[in-house]
UniProtKB/TrEMBL annotation:
It comes from the Bacteria. Its cofactor is Zn(2+). One of its GO terms (molecular function) is oxidoreductase activity, acting on the CH-OH group of donors, NAD or NADP as acceptor. This is L-iditol 2-dehydrogenase. Keywords: Metal-binding, Oxidoreductase, Zinc. It comes from Candidatus Chryseopegocella kryptomonas. Belongs to the zinc-containing alcohol dehydrogenase family. The keyword Oxidoreductase applies. Residues 10-338 form the Enoyl reductase (ER) domain. The keyword Transit peptide does not apply. It holds the Pfam family ADH_zinc_N.
Amino acid sequence: MKVAKLYDFGDIRIEEVEIPSISDDEILVKVKASGICSSDTMKWYIRKKAPLVIGHELSGIVVDIGKNVKEFKIGDRVFIHHHAPCMSCRYCQRGNFVMCETWRKSKIIPGGVAEYVKVPEVNLKNDTLKLPDNISFEDGALIEPVACSVKAFKKALIRPGDYVVALGLGFMGQVNVKLAKFYGAEIVIGIDKVKFRLDRAIENGADYVLNFETENVKEKIAQITNQYMADIVIVGPGTIEAINFGLELVAKGGKLLLFTPTPEDAKLEIKPFDIYFNEISIIPSYSAGPDDTREALRLISEGVIKAENFITHRFRIENTLDAFMMTANAGDSLKCMIIFD
Ligand SMILES: [Zn+2]
Ligand SMILES: [Zn+2]
């Protein structure tokens, strides 16, 4: 079978490997759709993890099952989360699934952009979902990233009437705009510099969009919110610059949501005086757990999130590098997806 293996930024090779063999407690899935995530294109992240088979946002169809597997059958259409928690450790019991050691260690074999994947027992039991008939494979491949947005808003305790700013309007920023409105935000403001992305944010429900290269964003947000600023600022880019910019836009009593990691050695300088007296909460949200994927599946099956609004480019596995470069360039595209026969 073919896999797309990432060796370095811009170095993806299509390689031929054996189809993984499964044990009695595992299943084999023929991948149908696999999204490219912008986190897969972050240079420092790649250098920590490469070489690896790229991709962790996928859906497919069950083609083989181990003899102990009862909950799934051949022909089932499924979403598979690449990490799954043990459900029994203290982190899991308290709902902090991504802190679970099993979650961190678990993975699908060999990775998302592959013609077939093996789903290990823990992933199968604790975060594999059957797709209802009204959900396409492309919709199914959006469950993982949409779950990240679901979790982030849950952590930020979004409330009806909130003013929300989305910094960065790539695919995730667009989903955050859409869900912020869905959760009842009164004003949603999207910020980017790419016209295509600003326009798409309006289509996805943003009340205002601002171009940070040509507009004074802070002043504009003050005007729009009658000097209040934003209850929640979602920082898309994983940079100190973006975090600092976000901090300038948070209202008193508001929240700064860190949606993307920064490099390991990055340091943030903050004034605790301001954080304290303005009661600013800084809330990180990393990935998503099984409760979030179920909620994402529900939102997608109810049509709140539709693949057609977010997938802008489709590629065959042979052209994974093109999908990667398009995602990395962050221009006139949102989600790039690898589609399989
Ligand atoms: Zn992702
Ligand atoms: Zn656990």
